[in-house]
Write a structure and sequence with these properties.
Blueprint: H1 4-12, H2 14-27, H3 29-37, E1 43-47, H4 53-60, E2 64-69, H5 72-79, E3 84-88, E4 100-106, H6 117-127, E5 128-139, E6 144-146, E7 152-154, H7 158-167, E8 171-181, E9 187-196
Amino acid sequence: MSDPKTIAIYDDRAAEYAGMTDQYNTTDPRLVAFIAACPEGGRVLDLGCGPGAAAARMAEAGLAVDAVDASAAMVEMAARHPGVTARHATFDDIAGEALYDGIWANFSLLHAPRTDFPRHLSGLHRALKPGGVFLIGLKLGKGEARDRIGRLYTYYTEDDLMDYLRAAGFTPTDIKHGQGEGLDGTVSPWISVIAHG
């Protein structure tokens, strides 16, 4: 994420966001499946970690967690969790090859402009170990727009997302749909995909 307005909103409303999401993020069935798909003691990346609730759950399960976020306020909150190494970084800061057994990109890459999305996915595929697990969550729809509080979103259809994932080298294996209320109060449909590198 590199949109300054979106980052500023997360900085300003980090505590409110944590209050809305922490409880669900620690019990999310998708997170349970992601953890189970990673090897014991494996190294994982939480991309766009927010307040760190999911990263904390991964650490509790024995995974070595690298948590990153473009919001300094979110990084500060995530770093308070035992076992979580949190740092300030954007999507473009993820580099390296075959570093991670798993990458958790749960509702983070939806803030990247569509033109940057293929580059980000390719970089994450390189950073993932062969056969590693990748989870991505996005809001369903078309186009790019700002929400009621000014955050930039890029929306995807399921077919579009599958095409992008396969083009980057991922093999989608599990797809789930749902809907949820965002920080702006809007209920939106979403898609969550587990894939392998």
